[in-house]
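Researcher: Structure prediction, please.
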Amino acid sequence: MKETLAFQIVALYRDFLTYTTNELKKLGLNFGQIPLILYVGKHPDCMQADLTKALNLDWGYSQRSIAKLVDTGFMTKAYKEKKSCNCLHLTENGKQAFDVCHSVFNAWDKIKLQDFSEEEKANILTLLKQIHAQDNIFVKEINKMKYAIVFSSETGNTKLLADTVQAALPKEDCIYFGKTDSAALKADRIYVGFWTNQDTCDENTAAFLKTTSNQEIFLFGSAGYGGDPAYFEKIIKQSSENMPNKEHLIGSFMCQGKMSMSVRERYEKMLNSPEKPSNIEDLIENFDRALSHPDESDFEALKKAVQA
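Model: Predicted structure follows.
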């Protein structure tokens, strides 16, 4: 067994673990926090979902680890309107830890390779890189995330958006596509589409969101009265209130959507009424502007949001 590559790698790992643990104790960190510190340091403004996927972590472990780093002052979580979710940054202590994490790698290398010539060092690293570059079937299996797409669509707008989401993702990884259904809960990630009702998602979508648990959630929807990013953000925020754990919201998308002609007919009656609302002409103008939405620019923006 000692003659195997696996044995030698495990032995080196244990040695590196002991060395780094002693160094990180001085900062109040542990070995398992190194990958998170390094990832956020290299990808400021990243989401938890990005970090979790890149490091092949369990969602629960990722969430607990980030919370610990926030509590101990190495990391911050700030809500970003553009992404409609919390994003991660290193604090000044976190940046110091980032530098230390890098230095322990270099210091350990220097100690372990001090008796080797420059040519031998280069050969060792070249061989290890070749091994690491091989397709890792085990990691690939872990990374296969199953997703579902559910939607509620009154006028067909959200169905068009749902079709766009499906076209932007690998079809083989989709386990469910259709109206809100418990079958979608078996997925790792759920793309949830809705139509807007009183500044939040429709009742069917709200009820479905309340049944979610550890799944990652991406919200997308349309609103008849659109164009204002602040209004769209309000809709997403109020819709996400239905989620048992809002931290699982990994992204969102909103756009304007056409309304039923019965709405314009109602507006026209109001326009001719003696007691017409002061903003009735604005409402009619907005209705007409919404007729072309969602359009190709909306679809393209949605694809980019889903693939980000």
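Model: The mean pLDDT is 85.
Researcher: Thanks, that helps.
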